[in-house]
Write a structure and sequence with these properties.
The chain is built from 17 helices and no strands. By secondary structure, the protein is mainly alpha-helical. The chain has one domain. The longest helix has 29 residues. The chain starts with 31 loop residues before the first helix and ends in a 6-residue tail after the last helix.
Length: 397
């Protein structure tokens, strides 16, 4: 065995000439030690946002469970308080992390694999579940009318695709508020892709695009946390008062004023009022989100899994009539249901579930996309380096 590259006999073959490669790619003639460069620093996840996402997804699941017990006034009061801010908080965080989104191929790929594909897969799955689990053989599969909670994925696609617009126009938040108000005027917008919700929740996504890290530092101040307590008390009192007086549909932001049996002019007024309340309670929510690593912090990275899957449990309970049990109308029954919903959504955010469903929730799908020139050049350089190292290995004499 020799360490040199061999051709015939014991003569050494000349090494290939040096080539100019892309930045960051070692030359074939440099050794591994020489070509090694310090690895870029690993970007740490912010525990605050992972905690916020986990707590918000727990509230989503609990809210969906409470939604089956709205004949109990105390439950509906808590339901209205939660529904005022839990999705706005989620949407604001989504906007904040979409600030760098543009229509470059790498972002489009992430949008397709991380939002569009999961929507298609789970929309189909929920439609089949409705057909067979609820004994509705005539229930069809349509991708234009999102099932249950999947509207958020449709909205996220629209919001992210329009992100360059909101990053370009002057006064984007004001424009989004006008669109939200206009969206409440006419029922003709229809249910396709839940455009009513897309428009009426748009201001929170745009607000997230305009925020900076220091804004979140301010809401986490101790004084904000203290002020949030009386605000929450007032919100609870108002929610209790509103149960027989205000249609809960105003909090869903999925209908025009006429569809809620209200005059057309009340749409912009109610949308403006409910969005203001949502913003105040969202600030209160962020004020109480822990800033340090907690036992549930790691689960914040898997909230999309819990969001997509937990609906099967809620719908199964509806189909089987579990929510009709009289015990759930008792205080202990409602508390038990709350704990169960929080436990189920927590389990759905864990590693085993994420590993099992990653193929449909976060698929790679490299086969579906054209390789970018820079990526192709890096792959070509890696292949050349591999060939040179292979040729330089010891060979039998």
């Amino acid at each position: 065995m020799t360490n040199s590259q061999r051709t015939y006999g014991n003569r050494r073959a000349p090494l290939p000439p040096a080539e100019s490669l892309a930045d960051g790619v070692p030359s074939p003639r440099t050794t591994h030690k020489e070509s090694a460069r310090p690895a870029p620093p690993v970007r740490q996840r912010d525990a605050f946002f992972d905690n916020a996402k986990y707590l918000a997804i727990v509230l989503v699941a609990v809210g969906h469970a409470w939604g089956q017990l709205l004949d109990v006034r105390a439950v509906e009061t808590a339901y209205r308080v939660v529904y005022t801010f839990h999705m706005p908080a989620f949407i604001l965080i989504s906007g904040y992390f979409s600030r760098s989104f543009d229509l470059r191929p790498k972002y489009v790929k992430r949008l397709v694999t991380g939002v569009v594909v999961p929507y298609v897969v789970f929309e189909t799955a929920y439609s089949l579940f409705e057909r067979h689990g609820n004994d509705r053989p005539d229930h069809g599969i349509t991708l234009l009318d999102p099932t249950y909670h999947l509207w958020f994925l449709c909205a996220l696609v629209v919001w992210r695709v329009t992100t360059p617009v909101w990053r370009t126009v002057r006064h984007p938040l004001a424009v989004s508020l006008v669109l939200a108000a206009l969206g409440s005027l006419s029922p003709r917008i229809g249910d396709d892709l839940e455009l009513q919700r897309v428009l009426q929740f748009l201001p929170f996504f745009v607000l997230g695009l305009t925020l900076r890290p220091e804004h979140f530092q301010r809401v986490r101040h101790h004084s904000v946390r203290l002020m949030s307590l009386p605000v929450l008390a007032v919100a609870t009192a108002v929610a209790w008062w509103s149960v027989p007086r205000m249609h809960v549909g105003w909090l869903y932001h999925k209908s025009a004023a006429e569809e809620l049996s209200a005059p057309w002019w009340s749409g912009p007024v109610m949308v403006s009022g409910t969005l203001t309340c949502s913003l105040v309670l969202t600030v209160c929510f962020f004020a109480w989100v822990p800033r340090r690593h907690m036992w549930f912090t790691a689960l914040g990275a898997g909230t999309i899994y819990g969001y997509l899957v937990h609906g099967f449990f809620v719908k199964a309970g509806i189909y089987a009539g579990w929510f009709d049990h009289p015990a759930l109308r008792e205080p202990l029954g409602a508390v038990g249901l709350t704990v169960l919903a929080a436990a189920v959504i927590t389990l759905l955010c864990t590693g085993p579930v994420r590993r099992t469903l990653r193929c449909v929730v976060e698929p790679k799908m490299a086969w579906a996309f054209v390789r970018e020139p820079a990526e192709a050049a890096r792959g070509h350089a890696r292949r050349e380096n591999t060939e040179v190292r292979t040729q330089g290995e010891r060979v039998p004499v």
